[in-house]
Design goal:
It is built from 3 helices and 6 strands. Strands 1, 2, 3, 4, 5 and 6 form a 6-stranded antiparallel sheet that branches.
């Protein structure tokens, strides 16, 4: 699998549950933040797109948890992207660093609403290389 973007971060204490591992909902935050950083790296921001009447919204999400992250673990969210019809499909894998242990596999389907209607955004397609 060829990744096109990587975002690195560190687990914060408050993201862990009583078991001392990252609460499952926080992995969705990690993947969302990585997608936002990826879009910023392409010279766009979701706020600017919104101001132009373009809203990118999650239409579907699937996650598989392999190995938990713990407080202060460093991790990398790696992204691969496919365009399927009107959907942008983000394949996002989270690896614990530095040992490169796969922790989570996510598939996030994103669609564009243009002035409230489902459609393709030329601005987004051009920025993402489609």
């Amino acid at each position: 699998m060829e990744y096109i973007y990587e975002h690195r971060d560190k687990v914060r204490d408050y993201e862990c549950d009583l078991q001392g591992i990252v609460n499952n909902a926080n992995y969705q935050h990690y993947t969302e933040h990585a997608r936002h950083e990826f879009i910023l790296s392409k010279g766009l921001s979701f706020a600017e797109l919104h101001d132009q009447g373009i809203d990118c919204v999650v239409a579907g999400l699937e996650m598989r948890f392999k190995v938990p992250l713990r407080s202060r673990d460093e991790y990398a969210v790696r992204i691969r992207l496919e365009k399927k019809g009107l959907r942008y499909v983000f394949f996002q894998d989270i690896y614990r660093l530095p040992d490169e242990t796969l922790c989570t596999k996510a598939k996030v389907e994103v669609v564009c609403l243009i002035n409230g209607k489902l459609g393709d955004s030329d601005i987004l397609m051009q920025a993402l290389g489609d």
